Structure formats: C-alpha cells, structure tokens
Automatic annotation (TrEMBL):
Gene3D superfamilies: NAD(P)-binding Rossmann-like Domain
Provenance organism: Comamonas koreensis
Lineage, highest ranks first: Bacteria, Pseudomonadati, Pseudomonadota, Betaproteobacteria, Burkholderiales
InterPro entries, A to Z: NAD(P)-bd_dom_sf (IPR036291), SDR (IPR050259), SDR_fam (IPR002347)
Similarity annotation: Belongs to the short-chain dehydrogenases/reductases (SDR) family.
Record protein name field: SDR family oxidoreductase
C-alpha cells in the first residue's frame, strides 16, 4: 500500500476522473479532488481526502486545491488531469472563440496544472502525471474537431515535457480512451469496436492507477490507447 503517497485528480467528479480517483484510493493514495460540479468535493469527502469545487480553466481554483493538499499531506506524487467537453460543430463553422475554448478545455488544463505541480514533484525527487486524452487524438474525427486539434498538441507537449523533466524522475503519459460507458451508448459505435462493447470507466481508472504505480516507473512520454482495438494505426 502507498499510504504515504498522495494523488490529486482534476476534473474528478464523475465518469473517468472519478473512476481514477477511486482506483487510486484503493491503491492506498491519499486524495485531493477537484471538479466544477461539486461532485469531486463530495467524492473526496467520501474517500477521506481533500475536495475543492472549481474549474481547471482557472489557475486560482487549481492553486487552491494544490495548497489544500500540500497543507494536509505535504506532498503530491501523482497528478491526474481530466477534461470537460469542448465545442463541436461543422469544421468551418466553428468560431475562433470556440477553437480557443477547445484549447482551454483539452490542452491548457494540463499545462496550467503541470506548472503548479511539477516544481513540487521536482523538489520531492519525482512524480507521475497522467492526462486523460482521447483515442481520436491521432485519428481525427469530425465528431470531435476541437478535441482532436488540442489533444494532438497535448501529445507534443507531453513529449517535450518528458524530454526536459525526465532527469528529475517526473513522468507524463496520456491515456487515450475510446467509447466509454460514461457516454450514451449507440449500437453502431459499439459494433465498430473489435471487442464489441463500450469500455468501462473503471478500466480507464485502472490504467491511470497502473501508470501512477511503481510498475510503470519506466513508462513516460507515451500515448496509451484504451479503446477496445477501435483505432486502426499500428
């Protein structure tokens, strides 16, 4: 058990973020959780951790979470970055403002949290950052244009971060979920998955918990598809 270790989960109120928080709790991590809905704060109370209601698009809100976790536990070993839902629409009808909103939701959420947490991890001698991205980051689909745009950028950011911070034993990886049961199910989408089912949020949570663990200590800079075989490239 990692009783001395601490994880913070941003956008951890429901779905994959909440599943990740529960899996980390089961692995023995003390938790700090933030969401905009208040569900993250409630989950943190349930799991005996620190909860904050706020937005990952607001640096002050994230600083509040980091400060609260540091005040109680004095360290941060794992950062999990979830995301909300960004704008969609016909490609050439998406406004400049909505493209920028996509960057806020799917890219800058990670950059801002990493700025706050990486220096803490550096002083401690290491840590793990796990970003919940999307299987469509590398096979873009018209369904998710702003997500695909921002999350391909996130992959580039992740590689550069690992090049620079690997020497400090800080790892960063992206989890790329496909169709997950926290979304409404559609038969035609399920039929396109080789495993013939939607994934479970708990399966994403388990992947996050593994990437946080000592068993993944030599895994960094990776984009790990958890999509039932949906994506085609090899």
């Amino acid at each position: 058990m990692n009783q001395s270790k601490v994880a913070i989960v941003i956008a951890g109120g429901s779905g994959m973020g909440a599943a990740a928080a529960r899996q980390l709790h089961q692995a023995g991590y003390a938790l700090g959780i933030m969401s905009s809905s208040g569900k993250g704060e409630a989950l943190a109370q349930e799991l005996g951790g620190v909860g904050v209601t706020g937005s990952n698009q607001n640096v002050a809100d994230m600083q509040k979470l980091v400060d609260a976790v540091m005040a109680r536990y004095g360290r941060i070993d794992v950062l999990v970055n979830g995301a909300g839902h960004g704008p969609k629409g016909d490609l050439l009808s998406i406004s400049d403002e909505d493209w920028i909103k996509g960057l806020e939701v799917y890219f800058l959420n990670v950059v801002r949290a990493t700025r706050l947490v990486a220096p803490i991890m550096q002083k401690q001698g290491g840590g793990a950052i796990i970003n919940i991205s999307s299987a469509w980051a590398f096979e873009p689909a018209a369904l998710f244009p702003t997500s695909a745009m921002a999350r391909s950028g996130l992959a580039a950011f992740t590689k550069i971060f690992c090049d620079e911070y690997g020497q400090h034993n800080i790892r960063m990886n992206n989890v790329l979920p496909g169709w997950i049961d926290s979304l409404p199910k559609k038969d035609e989408r399920q039929a396109a998955v080789p495993l013939q089912r939607y994934g479970k949020a708990d399966e994403i949570g388990a992947t996050v918990a593994f990437l946080a663990s000592d068993g993944a200590a030599y895994i960094t800079g990776q984009n790990i598809r958890v999509d039932g075989g949906l994506m085609r490239h090899v």
